[in-house]
Amino acid sequence: MEDRVNEAIEERKSGNTVESIRILKELIDEYPESGSLHYQCAWSHDASGLEEEAVEYYEKALTYGLDEEESIGAYTGLGSTYRALGKYEKSKEVLEDGLKRHRDRGLSVFYSMTLYNLGETKKAMELLLGQLCDTSSDESIQSYAAAINYYSRDLDRTW
Questions:
Q1: Where do the H-state alpha helices sit in 31-144?
Q2: How buried is 14 (Cβ within 10 angstroms: 0-12 exposed, 13-18 middle, 19+ buried)?
């Protein structure tokens, strides 16, 4: 099975998502409760621009169980897919659930985008600015990190 999964991943990486999906669906027929196969199939659907179809596979992947790395990817993928489909509340719900389970910066950034779409711009900016301060090695950002973090908590405040 591992060789076939690797083949499907390589097909996806080379842009042949149709073949990747075909291989993964065959494997899912053999191993219908494999969270990892459902996750890979969801990813290949997403890479094909088939977001609606990806949702079912992401949901099954999370239901059947994944290792930590794949779980983070599935929460990110599903939350991002819901956002791309305009299902912002569902996106928020999925990403919040993912963030309860995993401390992951990528999840947090996608969550910020969803908050923006929901009009929760203050919270979105606070999260993004915090990520910027925490991850940037740029000296000019780091020299102002304390101020950026302080101001990010209430961007509308004036003195």
A1: 35-47, 51-64, 68-84, 88-101, 105-117, 121-135, 139-143
A2: exposed
- Is residue 93 over pLDDT 90? yes
> Can you read off the two tokens belonging to residue 56?
């079912």
pTM to 2 decimals? 0.91
- CATH H-level, domain 1-127: superfamily: Tetratricopeptide repeat domain (1.25.40.10)
Contact 76, 110 (CB under 8 A): yes
Give, in order, the Cα–Cα distances in Å from 92 to each of 49, 78, 88, 98, 142.
21, 10, 6, 10, 30
Domain ranges of the chain: 1-127
Is residue 27's pLDDT more than 90?
yes
